[in-house]
Amino acid sequence: MLRNVLKHETCANCRICCSFVKNDVWEAPVFSEQEIEEIEKKGIGRDRFLQQKDGNYIARYDFQTDTEILLCPCLDEERGCLLGEHKPFECSIWPLRIFENEKTAYLGLAEICPAFQGEGEKLLIHELEENGLRGRIMALKEKQNRMKPEKGYHRV
């Protein structure tokens, strides 16, 4: 959904959104049963994921240290994300995330994404406001599998 403001090469060279240390594993994507079935079709075993009480799944990360960096099981270091168009909604809009409170729903931007700092953030806000990206994302908010804390995000 961010193709107009984010080049594939930029993500391919960074991959910060697909790598986790123990303290930020809360940021890892949540997968639905349907997404897990698509993942299995790509040859990634269901055993790489843990089913949660709500029926959704998260990747299994077995950290040996607090600073060890582990990759999403759907990321191939040579080819990138193996899920393509079948990736979870939250992955397709990252570094944006939808947050809700008792009054409204709004978008937050991950402060850690290097592509949207400075001029990149201005370009993103223009796309959100002037080209209707905010509306397109918000229209799909029910696809987000789980609300997460706002830690590390700022409202855009």
What this model shows, in words?
This protein has 156 residues and is α+β, with helices and mostly antiparallel strands. 25% of the residues lie in helices and 19% in strands. A hairpin with a 5-residue loop joins strand 3 and strand 4. The chain is globular. The mean pLDDT is 89.
In a few lines, what is going on in this structure?
The protein has 156 residues and is of the alpha+beta class. It has helices spanning 8-14, 33-41, 89-93, 119-130, 133-138, and strands at 19-20, 30-31, 49-51, 57-59, 70-71, 75-76, 80-81, 96-100, 105-110, 153-155. It has five helices and ten strands.
- Main β-sheet, spatial strand arrangement: 2-4-3
Q: Strand pairing plus helix content: what structural class?
A: alpha+beta
What do the pLDDT scores average to? 89
Described by the principal axes of the CA atoms, the overall outline is globular
Sketch the major β-sheet: 3 strands, antiparallel
Helicity range of the residues?
25-40%
Strand fraction: 15-25%
Q: Total helix count?
A: 5
pLDDT < 50 runs, ≥5 residues: none
Would you report the number of β strands?
Answer: 10
Distance between the termini: 16 Å
If you compute it from the alpha carbons, what radius of gyration comes out, rounded to the nearest whole angstrom? 16 Å
